[in-house]
Amino acid sequence: MAEFDITEHPHRRYNALTGEWLLVSPHRSKRPWQGQQETTEAEQRPAYDSTCYLCPGNTRAGGAVNPPYTGTFVFDNDFAALTADAPVGTVNVGGLLRAEAESGVGRVICFSPRHDLTLPEMDEAAIRGVVDVWVEQFRELGARPDINYVQIFENKGQVMGCSNPHPHGQIWAQRTVPGKPAKETVQQAAYFQEHGRSLLTDYLTLELQEQQRVVLENAHWVALVPYWAVWPFETLVLPRRHVADITQLSDEEKDAFASILQQLTIRYDNLFQISFPYSAGLHQRPTDGLEHPEWHLHMHFYPPLLRSATVRKFMVGYEMLGDPQRDITPEAAAQRLRELPAVHYKQTV
């Protein structure tokens, strides 16, 4: 029997952050694709769109009028999934039919007044402005007694369900800690209790030693394809220093964060020479009043595209019924991203 080769043979990988497993099938990356293909028509957007609900000075769908903002702009979501005044109540029928009221706040962050830009097309100073808003919003919302978790995220591209192309992200802050960060809290707490160090500090040390999955790095941050990545070109962005949340970053670390976000998203766009879709978000400590010394701030990027600009990864069949599964290995994905130019493809035309 042939010797096991992690780059060639099917195997399972353990996600140390969530305690879950995934299936990796490298041999399947050679199979032909005859399934759905996405459209890739070039999108030409004006710097200002009079019909856009998020452009400066325009009226939003809920009737409010945007100010003539020139940088970032934050407002309460007109159609938020969570509301602060939700009535308290529970349902419990036989221990099987259960529900409980959930309250919270939904906000929208416009990254730029420019309708035609995305993060990789913004300069570092503008992205630093976005980072500063994330800091302010986490500090403000996390201080509220009715908020125990603040989820900051961005959906980019129609394929990720983004309803407006204007560059923007969202915040959902709520009473309970949602499922994924709750699992990460359990895993990190167990590791910290056993080792006295953060799980992601030790994980980052291993990744920097191996250098197989590192995409890029600077003095304060590292972007890598995690060993347990599920999505084809998924990445994890980590500060080298163990901090629990974004408010603990120094000015130099915030500058470096803006820089690595720009460089990473440029590589995403350059991969298939399109405005690369993804869902991305910060994971940081719960704001439930506890210390959480185990928590290590990080940012996830989950892009859906697989082989080209027209072929995406679907989570169906085995993934829905069993475990997540991927074909291209994290090591191969990291190498492809690492070798891409650092200048946006639109600037090299």
TL;DR of this structure?
The chain is of the alpha+beta class and 349 residues long. The chain has helices at residues 124-142, 179-195, 199-210, 251-272, 318-321, 330-338; strands spanning 11-15, 20-24, 73-76, 90-93, 97-100, 104-110, 149-156, 168-174, 214-217, 221-224, 235-239, 278-283, 298-302, 305-308, 311-312, 325-326. A 9-stranded antiparallel sheet has the order 3-6-8-7-12-13-11-10-9, sandwiched between helices.
Can you walk me through this structure?
With 349 residues, this protein is an alpha+beta fold. It is 24% helix and 22% strand. It contains 6 helices and 16 strands. It has helices at residues 124-142, 179-195, 199-210, 251-272, 318-321, 330-338; strands at 11-15, 20-24, 73-76, 90-93, 97-100, 104-110, 149-156, 168-174, 214-217, 221-224, 235-239, 278-283, 298-302, 305-308, 311-312, 325-326. The chain has a 9-stranded antiparallel β-sheet, with helices on both faces. Helix 1 packs across helix 4 (251-272). The longest helix has 22 residues, at 251-272.
Number of helices: 6
* Helical content (DSSP H or I, runs of 4+): 10-25%
Number of strands: 16
Nearest-angstrom radius of gyration? 21 Å
Major sheet characteristics:
9 strands, antiparallel
Q: H/E element string?
A: EEEEEEHEEHHEEEHEEEEHEH
Strand content: 15-25%
Overall geometric form: globular
Distance separating the two termini? 51 Å
Structural class: alpha+beta
**Residue runs with pLDDT of under 50 for 5 or more positions:** 32-39
- Strand arrangement, major sheet: 3-6-8-7-12-13-11-10-9
Mean pLDDT: 93
